[in-house]
Design a protein that fits this description.
With 137 residues, this protein is mostly helical. It has five helices and two strands. It has a two-stranded antiparallel ribbon.
Length: 137
């Protein structure tokens, strides 16, 4: 099948399929016309790759897994372990983002405090000016 048919059947863009091919994740035969010709097994491989990318696995992670997937030696336990590892990475990212959020909220509070202090100082300095002749006792 041509790349456009593969894209239609898998829901993966032609651009992404070309990236997968350039990375060696999928292979195509070349017709004399120069068109790529993909085999039926490529549909399953692309779905596997697409699902992996949707779960946040890097292309390198997937490149490491694809040969075992093709050979049928990638076990459910290995996939679950990879996903658990990915969950750990996501948890670490969430913790980093929460810490960043706390710093941002803290900085907003600091800036607001500085603004209140500046307004208070301006208000105090306005009342410290000498009174006009009419205001003097």
């Amino acid at each position: 099948m041509k790349i456009s048919e593969l894209a239609r059947r898998t829901g993966v863009s032609v651009h992404r399929l070309r990236r997968y091919e350039d990375a060696g994740l999928i292979q195509a035969e070349r017709r004399p016309s120069g068109y790529r010709e993909f085999g039926e097994r490529t549909v399953r491989e692309v779905v596997f790759l697409s699902m992996g990318r949707d779960l946040g696995f890097s292309l390198q992670d997937l490149a490491d897994a694809v040969p075992r997937y093709r050979a049928g030696t990638l076990t459910f336990e290995q996939m679950v372990e990879a996903m658990r590892s990915r969950i750990g990475e996501v948890d670490a990212l969430i913790a980093e983002q929460r810490a960043l959020r706390r710093r941002l909220v803290s900085h907003i509070g600091w800036l607001q405090q500085r603004q209140r202090e500046a307004e208070k100082a301006r208000s105090a300095s306005k009342s410290a000016w000498p009174r006009t002749r009419k205001e003097r006792p």
